[in-house]
Design brief:
It is built from 11 helices and 13 strands. By secondary structure, the protein is an alpha/beta fold. The radius of gyration is 19 Å and the shape is globular. Bound molecules: uridine 5'-triphosphate.
């Protein structure tokens, strides 16, 4: 079955990016000239996704506004002859069919994904974490969808992380299938002891799940950090039917982290067709003073 639906969990509290995220969702923080979540939506659309459910909560209404029409603004832009900006503004609402649901309590990523059950129905679906922006020629979500079509199993996007950082991530038991494809048969969230580390491969930002994940989530008790962890539900899937891991190509930026936001801003600005050249000259000058 073709994967056409995607879920973007964007209901976290963003405590690592305070005070910026006190009233502004981290998913709406700007990278050059677009909010982070627009890069994620564009990746999904470029991967063949047509329907997107964004999981929000109180105070995240600006996300809905961003993907809606904006009649007063559009009228003003047209009246002042700013056709280019008008086209850009209108095109955002036409990227996909957008749906929104609120996660009423912030009980973790697994709990957020479980809010998507009725949207998903009985189809495979992609999950794009709302604070992970991935930039690359070949959209990461599409790479995972192709792996789903090839191997017929749920897929996780994986990357190797430094040994000293693995306790902050998940750790996966994997075996190489071919190239950047792995079979995954076990996983653990935030391993605290050395003997719990299965490998340095961790799930980063993207997965393609099958609808059987919802019954597993219903039965998942709070895990690391007292939250209902998506990894704990996926673990059962990995141990029983198995999953596929894709060491995806593309550069990932962690928008849930202050340094990650700065890296995204600098690197994406350098590749911007309009601003790139002048920003590069500015950085070169600035670097002489560092
Ligand atoms: P994170 O754990 O990185 O987000 O979740 P957080 O809770 O906002 O992070 P802190 O407070 O800085 O540690 C990864 C993704 O899952 C979403 C977040 O919005 C983020 O996109 N999420 C997390 C939810 O939608 N609901 C939750 O209950 C938790």
């Amino acid at each position: 079955m073709k994967v056409t639906k995607a879920v973007i969990p964007a209901a976290g509290l963003g405590t690592r990016v305070l005070p910026a995220t006190k009233s502004m969702p981290k998913e709406m923080l700007t990278i050059v000239d677009k909010p982070a979540i627009q890069y994620i939506v564009e990746e999904a659309v470029n991967s063949g996704i047509t329907d997107i459910l964004i999981i929000t909560n109180r105070g995240k209404g600006v996300i809905e506004d961003h993907f809606d029409r904006s009649p007063e603004l559009e009228e003003r832009l047209l009246a002042s002859g700013k056709q280019d900006v008008y086209d850009q503004v209108v095109s955002i609402s036409k990227l996909a069919n957008f749906y929104f649901v609120r996660q009423k309590e912030t009980k973790g990523l697994g709990h957020a994904v479980n809010c998507a059950r009725s949207f998903v129905g009985n189809e495979p679906f992609a999950v794009l974490y709302g604070d992970d922006v991935i930039i690359g020629e070949d959209p990461a979500c599409g790479q995972l969808i192709r792996a789903y079509e090839k191997y017929g199993k749920a897929v996780v996007g994986i990357k190797s992380v430094p040994e000293e950082a693995i306790s902050k991530y998940s750790s996966l038991k994997v075996e190489q299938l071919e190239g950047n494809m792995y079979s995954c048969t076990d996983m653990v969230e935030k391993p605290q002891r050395k003997e719990d580390v299965l490998s340095l491969f961790s799930i980063l930002g993207r997965c393609v799940l099958t609808p059987d994940i919802f019954d597993l989530l219903d039965n998942t008790k709070p895990g690391a950090g007292g939250e209902i962890q998506l990894t704990d539900a996926m673990r059962t899937l990995a141990q029983t039917v198995g999953m596929t891991g894709v060491d995806f190509t593309g550069k990932r930026y962690d928008m849930g982290d202050k340094l990650g936001i700065l890296q995204a801003t600098v690197e994406i600005a350098l590749n911007n067709p309009v601003l790139g050249d002048s920003f590069r000259s500015y950085l070169k000058e600035l670097s002489k003073t560092l």
